[in-house]
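Q: What structure does this chain adopt?
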Amino acid sequence: MGANPRAAAVAALVRQEQDGFSNLVLDAELRRQELEGRDKAFASAIFYTVLEHRGTLDYILEQFLPKGLAKLDPPVREILRSALAQARYMQVPVSAAVNEAVKLTRSFKKSSASGLVNAVLRRACGYDLDKAVFADEVQRLMVLGSAGQDVAQFLSRNYPEEALEILTRSADSGLTSLRANPLRTTVPELCANLAECGVEAQPGIVPGSVLARFQGSPAEQELFRKGYYHVEGQASQLAALCVGAKPGETVLDLCAAPGGKTILLAEQMQNTGTLFSCDAAENRVGLIRTAVDRMGLTNVKTRCSDATKRDPSLPLADRILTDVPCSGLGILAKKPDLRYKKLEPQRQAELHAVQASILDTAAQLLKPGGRLVYSTCTIDPAENQQQVAAFLQRHPEFSVLEPEVEMPAGMTVGEWGCLSVPSRTGMDGFFLCAMKKAP
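A:
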């Protein structure tokens, strides 16, 4: 079977059903099939389009499968999903999508299913979703927003008016959000330099950010290799900006990988002072080091360190950023696997305990009068406002600070911190709270 992007996408989707991590599964399959350039891009587009719209695709296919999708062999199921995704979301003509799908049934040695694939797809491609009748709001979100039951229930309970928009809106206008390195360039210069390389770019809504439209990977640009920018969502940049790191200070970034916020903090410090950038996983610490070296920053010391416990090798700091592990419910548009996440009460309780212990560690490591920023990429109040409120009860020496950084339109600024909801700000779902320790 020669290099076939559709076959590679289907093979990766079958693996993804079995064992999870989408980007690793896809990368392995693309390497195995030795796909390059446009074929590689097409296979990736099919793969992620299926993941992003799986709830919708499955609902439509189920209308024409009396025994349901679950009874089919995995390759046949993924051939149907990927062909419908091409016809519905990728501007591939229906005839091409259907014909190629039928051919794939033979490549995957499922020729007996070719008649079914042909008949189902010809009808499914013309299905009018506007006529669908749903049992309740949760089913509507699962189908139209392509979410698992737990995520649909969470959104309908916490964000009833905005749930569908949260599931369907792309963050940062669907562009790639960058941060200009102020030690090497300015936002206008970076936009102009990117334009010369054929990349559309414009200033973002967060000061210092740039929104760009790349044809390939942002990392393939010479400007990236020379450290003129790093890739980081606008909302995430906001959290690091609220740390307010100053030249000459001692700063800790306790959950730092892959390193975007560390880079921004080091730039704020004008490459002076010392920034300790920590992560619990050794291989992820390597990612931070690679990113920092590429940007030409020399004031960063990386550490493999578990932030749930105090590390005696870390000094007391003027400022600390804790961007904690979270449920990721703010970045559903970027990480389609999270849409189908099971929100099991015990797993959630364990996550909340980790977040609380990281905050307690930070409280011990902060100098009197210092600043602590807590941030997550979720919109779950239990991980955000309630986590801050509980921390302040345990640590009365801390108080919430008014953000010094101007918050973009649509941010909710409350007594326990600032919340970005994608449907209100156009950025990722994100939470941050800056607090001060009494002198």
